[in-house]
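Friendly challenge for the regulars: who can give me the structure tokens for this chain first? No prize, just bragging rights.
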Amino acid sequence: MSNVRVGLGVTLLLGLTLSALLMLMATAPAQAQTCQTEIDELKSLTAEATFLGKNAEKAQANLLLKLDEANAKFEKVKYQDAIDKLTDFQNTVIALDAGSKIDSGDASILITGAEEAKGCVRGLQAQTPTATA
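First reply, four minutes later:
Bragging rights claimed.
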């Protein structure tokens, strides 16, 4: 009788574990798409931002490159690297704003957008099991 109870308990626990894993697997692609959309939107906002000074085009191209690099890391499921690239983007925008090389309103939007994209990727990173070396 107790073997039956143990067997049912293990089966129930296994079933709940599998259900939780399936739920995570179902939500991860949707969240990945959301994060991808946030990075793409940040790229569009950067392309539309007003950069100032004689190196305005170079500064804008540099930021767009950083977003391309973040996107490439994201697509390779290297979430921490993508977060690092987004942080680099964000720090560059802060420096450009401090040097009056970008419209302050645009800088604020880009900084906030980068923070939101990083938050999205962090959420996805938390759902992804880490591989052991």
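The helical segments are 2-48, 56-75, 79-98, 104-127. Residues 18-27 have pLDDT under 50 and may be disordered. Your move, everyone else.
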